[in-house]
Amino acid sequence: SALVDGKSSHIPYRDSKLTRLLQDSLGGNTKTVMIANMGPADYNFDESMSTLRYASRAKNIQNKPHINEDPKDAMLRDLQEQIQQLRSQLNAAGGGAPGVPGAPGQVVEKEVVVEKVVEKVVGVSEEEVARIKRELEEQREIERRALEEQNLVQREEA
Fold first, then answer.
1. What is the largest CA-CA distance in the chain?
2. Cα(117)–Cα(77) distance, rounded to whole angstroms?
3. What is the DSSP letter of 93?
4. Axis crossing angle, helix 45-59 with helix 17-27, rounded to the nearest 10
5. Is 81 a residue whose pLDDT tops 90?
6. Cα–chain-centroid distance for residue 111?
7. How far is it, in rounded angstroms, from Cα 41 to Cα 47?
8. Do residues 76 and 132 touch, judged by C-beta distance below 8 A?
């Protein structure tokens, strides 16, 4: 079966009502539980064997699930992670530039409250995405300048 061997990208579904109903579950991004019901009567033998073969093939299917995520949300998450990494690099390098909180010789008290809020916005305009990108780029530029100034101050002190 194409679902079991995983070699082909095309998955042919047979003309079965059950397979059509389960096609998203069998080849999609979900967990599926299959219960095979059989009758004990001898006249149900052929149908019972067919059911067992189908259940056996379905049991061997292995999916590779992935997170369903909006590309814009993924991009924003990546940009926020980059900002956080830059901030941690800046702090690890000894703080910020003179006049910037976190510079050497200054005591800065920070309280970080982490709260994950999942909010799905439908229909974000391109202008809004462009504005967010500009704000992130401006923040990166400020952090880059602060890091450069800090490096200059450290060179002058050395």
1. 93
2. 13
3. T
4. 20
5. yes
6. 28
7. 11
8. yes
